[in-house]
Amino acid sequence: MAEEKLQRLEVVTPQERVYSQDIRFVVLPGTEGELGILPEHAPLVSALKTGLVRMQHEGNTLKIAISGGFAEVRNSKVTVLANAAEREDQIDVKRAQAAKERAEQRLATRSPDIDIDRAEAALRRALNRLKATGY
Amino acid sequence: MASLRDLKRRIKSISSTQKITKAMKAVAAAKMRRAQDSVLAARPFARRVRDVLGRVGSASVGMKHPLLAVREPQKVAYIIVTADRGLCGGFNANVLKLGVQETKKHPNADLITIGRKGRDFYRRRQYNIAQQYIGTEKADLGLTNEVARFVIDKYSVEEYDEVYLIYSQFVNVIVQRPVVQKILPVEPPEGEADEKKVDYIFEPDAETIMDSILPMYIQNALFQAILETNAGFYSAQMTAMDNATKNASDMIDRLTLSMNLARQAAITTEISEIVGGAAALE
Question: Among A19, A71, A109, B171, which residue is least crowded by beta carbons within 10 Å?
Fold first, then answer.
């Protein structure tokens, strides 16, 4: 079998580089729907929403929960610039659970002094993190 | 010559000061290492955002975006980042000095101070401080988010025509360089010359991408500035405290020497008095 073509995937946040590997296939959570990227994809820039980046690396699938940002694809290089990113094996399920409950509670009370948009965004992020761990 | 007792007292007071400076140096060194690590960890992101913005910018020339709009600068804002605390040599003073110099170009400029030292300095001199933030030691995205949103809003409603960022760049432990950076209007960095223009597919479209990348760029510039300030602050403090400790050692050495001289002189006087007294009795 010919050498399998690979592409470099980097996931970077303002604090650190979360992931950097040569991989075969990656799925990105684009704002307009999921984007599957194979090596030698045409140059692309896409906005990303809160969701999961899934990639296949040596037969394994790894998920990274990201919240917002964008991705650039160029010369078989995929760069994901996210506001926050957590690998599935680094997510603190308890914390995510607590964040989810907090957000739900805040939405349930609907008191005027809370920011509904912010609470909803927090809930989305918490659910996203829980989804990554397969909870 | 000062009396023996005075000298002793001064030596004691200096050596207790030295203990403090030594301890502060150790603390600053430990914190510096951490601050340095986070600056270095944050740089890849900053570079990537800049790269992508440069390429996307050159791929979509002629695009009108509110944050790219160049206007005649009538009202200008300066964001000045300093540390919260002092005892760090000229670190804060250098940034403040550059701030004073820069703001002379636009006498009615608004200031946004991040860090206690900057706030105190400009408040005393009665500059217009539009916003002030302290607590920069733990750089968090919430703070930068807030500042970024503030200037972006003001810029979008044309209240500010230009926004500059003044902070101290962390070059290495010895060198911190105060710099001015224009953050609004955003000037997309030039792509490398040999890089040919990339024909991107935009998903969903170039405007939406710019809508998310430009604020991210501004916020990241602020975040980076705070991290650089932190790393620089601890480096400067460590250096300053190291010097203070050394100076204290020198002073103690000098004082010990003159104390010994004074003691010797006292003994000599005493002996010659005894000898003189004995001679008088004969």
Answer: A109
